[in-house]
Amino acid sequence: MSVYAIDKICYRALHDLAFREAVKRDPAAAIADLPLTGEERQALLAGDVAWLYERGVHPFLMGHLTRFGLFGLTVMTYSERIRAARDPR
Hints:
This protein is an all-alpha fold and about 90 residues long. It has a single domain, classed as Dioxygenase LigAB, LigA subunit (Protocatechuate 4,5-dioxygenase, Chain A), CATH 1.10.700.10. Helices cover about 70% and strands about 0% of the residues. It has helices spanning about 5-15, 15-25, 25-30, 40-45, 50-55, 60-65, 75-85.
């Protein structure tokens, strides 16, 4: 798991305007050259924060993605998905 790579993507989305705009335009192309496994890439592109959280990605950093609607995430969808990961009923 490239936890650091995912955390870095979340950090860059907040601090790097050019990267953020690239993710908005074409998320798959924006992360194509980054060191991610196929599963990580798929989860990120699907906005599957529960899967990423369960594998160690920092929830605070992933929350930055909602600020700009990246990877289909809104505050509501993020909240629902992260709660599902934290409450495994």
